[in-house]
Amino acid sequence: MSHSTVTKDAPAIGPSKTWTSTGRSKVTSTDALRVVILVTSALLALIPIVWLVLGSFKTPTELSKRPPTLLPESWGLSNYTEAMTRFNFPSYLTNSVIVTLAATLLTLAINSMAAYALAKYNFRGKNGLFLLTLATIMIPLQVILLPVYQVVASLGLVNTLWGLIIPAAATPTGVFILRQYMLSIPDELIEAARVDGAGEFRIFFRIVLPMCRPALAVVAILSIMWRWNDFLWPLVVAQSESVYTLPVALARFTAEETVPFNLILAMSVVTVLPVIILFLFFQRQIVTGIANTGIK
Amino acid sequence: MAAIQATPRLRQRKAPLKMRLVPYLFLLPNMAIFGLFTVWPAINGFNISMYSSSNGRTFRWEGTGNYQRILTDEDFWGIVRNTVVYALAFVLLSVVLGVMLAVLVDQQRRGRTFFRSVFFIPVLISPVVAGLVWNWMLERQNGLINTFLGTLGIPEVPWLVDNTLAMVVVIGVGTWMQVGFYMLILLAGLQSIDPSVYEAAKIDGASRWQQFISLTFPLLQPSILVVVVLATIHGFQAFDFIYTLTGGGPVGATTLIVQYIYENGFVSPIRYGVATAGSVLLFCAIFALTIANWMIGRKREAA
After folding, report:
1. B88 and B236 share a domain?
2. ipTM, 2 decimals?
3. Domain span at B27
4. Looking at the partner chain, which of B56, B118, B261 has a beta carbon nearest the beta carbon of A42?
5. Structure pTM?
6. Fold held by A88-295
7. Which of B134, B180, B237 sits opposite A142 (nearest CB)?
């Protein structure tokens, strides 16, 4: 709120600048109403996150105060260090990082190869396979939870990080985004490389992949965001504590009340922060990636 | 073999076998994982739903017994009702608030990117964390929200204790988490509308509201359809934030179908057949609704 009033009341330098336009037009009541609604909604979106961050610095005594205090008494990191030393959070953090990175690399590798075949080759069964890939967007994991678990169990992958990494790696959206992008690469380029005697796999790795960097970035970021926050599948596969990821650990410990709440809050911040930072850095790619998958 | 098939008539000789194998080799890793962990389980799910098992290892043939069991089970219908209530409210709120936010952000010139990012941040939050933070804020006696309401003179609200209120909370938090995602899709739709359309309307003296009803809304229909389809699928899948927000309680008032599947499949007493039968029904619901959404959307577009 304060921001908007400051801008509106600021002494005009040169042509008067308003909150809504850089031109000379006046601030109408509709504009004011819009800003009020936007700012209120922004507060609603942010308050829980701000409250979480503030809470992560509070001691158990502060957290149980009635009424709750707004700011923590000190900004010391003791909740964070205590969670990391007294409990196994370093291990959950490591598991989360390994699963997210390995799964994303695997997704990028296999999705881009499949996308290349679907975009640049003609072969029997091509359309069928592409349609099958698209159709499975409608089959979320939730629907096939038990049969997938059966497969993973029979492969001996329960309670392993591979069991968390592999099953969801062949994402239909990744194939789709990469295929659309590869369609725009001119065939002549690939033909020319063939004439020069480059092998098919060499063409893919040396020519096609480097050209797809923007699309690969979108798929990578979406995959990281999704795998990092993933919960149901890790909950089912990571049954022993040594393979817990951060969300699984947080959910289990909150339910069991085995870990003090101030430490839960600190680890929640550790869970939430990396994705927000990633988003702030790659905002443009994420926004276009989502807009495109949504529309096409 | 390739040499025999190749006829000199063809301008391009048929590629040698090695070349024809290349696309399949590129597809192999993706399709192997995809087939093993998505396509085969999707088919096998129908099969498993015909058996019963209490440990996931030994199975007994049931035929349609599982379906009969859950379809005559009052608890299951309660869960179906919860899921439908949640999904309907979630889709409705997502569309209405998504369109509202998208239009407001689109019209806002100063700080458009800022608002867009802020509304998207809840989408990025781990649903488990979102659930536990909201649970904490909604605590009856010492929660942030009741404390705030208290300063306005409103008595303590039993947010997570009352059945109806708990469902309202779950719907609200679910929408809070996802609406920024739908807003992005709708915003992209708004920005693809040709601005000259509005020029004509302005010359005709149409008010902003008239412009919205007669221009923006119809032109935004394709994006709205996408949001309806995605929100329907998301709505029926809701699970993770509810797990830490209400745990499905009080006494099952916010238990939705995915939690039902999870608990029957993995929390004792395990009832595998019941869980898979529930999954098959969930799949049928998602499939039917997606098709229905597209058909309605197509008809609207044609009209």
Report:
1. yes
2. 0.86
3. 1-32
4. B118
5. 0.86
6. MetI-like fold (1.10.3720)
7. B237
